[in-house]
Automatic annotation (TrEMBL):
PANTHER family: ALLANTOATE DEIMINASE-RELATED (PTHR32494)
Keyword Metal-binding: yes
Cofactors: Mn(2+)
UniProt keyword Lyase, yes or no: no
Pfam family of the protein (one): Peptidase_M20
Keyword field: Hydrolase, Manganese, Metal-binding
Gene3D superfamilies cross-referenced by the UniProt entry: 3.30.70.360, Zn peptidases
Source species of the chain: Roseomonas nitratireducens
Name recorded for this polypeptide: Hydantoinase/carbamoylase family amidase
Class of enzymatic activity (EC top level): hydrolase
Amino acid sequence: MPIPDRALSDALRLAEALFARLREASLDPPGVTRASYGEGEAAAHAIMADAARELGLEVASDAIGTLRMVLPGTDRDLPAIAIGSHLDSVPHGGNYDGAAGVVLGLATAAALIAAGRRPRRDLLVLGIRAEEMCWFPAHYLGSRALFGLLPRQAPDTLRRVDTGRTLAQHMAEQGLDPAPIREGRPLLDAGRLACFLEPHIEQGPVLVEEALPIGIVTGIRGSLRYPQASAHGQHAHAGAVPRAFRRDAAMAGVALIAALDARWAMLEAGGADLVCTTGILATDPAHHTSTKVPGLLRFSLDIRSIDADLLGEIDHWLKTEALRIGAARGVDFDFGPPTHAAPARMDAGLRALLMREAVTAGVPAKEMASGAGHDCATFAGAGVPSAMLFLRNRNGSHNPDEALDMPDVAAGLAVLARAVAALLDQA
């Protein structure tokens, strides 16, 4: 039985109000700041918890701060349908990255309640902690901790970049307990979840450029990251040292990056899924000047693909190419500690369901890969059937200009709520 338009309209008004409350609580001009295990994130969790209680949902937070909001089903022994995302943001970021998934989860619960639907199984709406890697140097920190997948030393070795204090210290400030992480103890049983759905703003321009309100994600690219790579040569006088005797770290680093770009172009032309980024590229400010050959270059590499084998091939190629360029230029490369995130394929059955409901609701949609990482990848990796629904977003993400139009929220909600209603009633 479809959800009435009136129920969806009421749920949309709730979503709009929640977005406004989140913005007001975490405003940090020119955008919003909800630091992982910080005041802004905690305020967002409190807002969502209050809204869930007003709807009559069961509300609780676990030891590491995951917010759990449950619309009970008639048969509570059945695995739950979960919807959710994270509530932290980058510094001075937009109001919708992550938060849209939790807001749409609550709005879906509100639509079901307004329609008088008592689901057969539980609907679990999750507010996940600490997804944004800019605060603590660990990908999917909150969702990996939820499944007991973080290194056990993480609470005491991970430090927040703006404060220098450990994850354990920040958790303690909020009355939370890092013991489950130290013990490698999961706080969520993957076997108790029938599936996980993560609504999220698209973080690129595809839906805007193709004039589509929603996208259905096929998979989440994995990443190979070297955030602290460097090239080491020798500082020298810019005019006095001939080319043959130079150990120019900048030239060597640029040569490696140019070679990577050429390889990327070749692989992409052959149909490979690949993106490569050098976000940091700097000589040593304590030594650099226009009249000195640089002996040190610091740089970062961020390489992503839906193909795990390709990421492995690129990693091997990088090391081999660095040795070749280094030998030719008298420079040593140090890639530093890597961070890896495995690619995640989205569940084919859930993707098909979302597409069918989009057609039924008259909402234009397309299937597309996600270039950015999401907590959904952790759920998929834990064996939970998972899917993502992208909402059109003008101006990209991780910036104050994220723009989510309410008609697009309405389109996404119509598809999501219908799909969730169908899943909740399954045996």
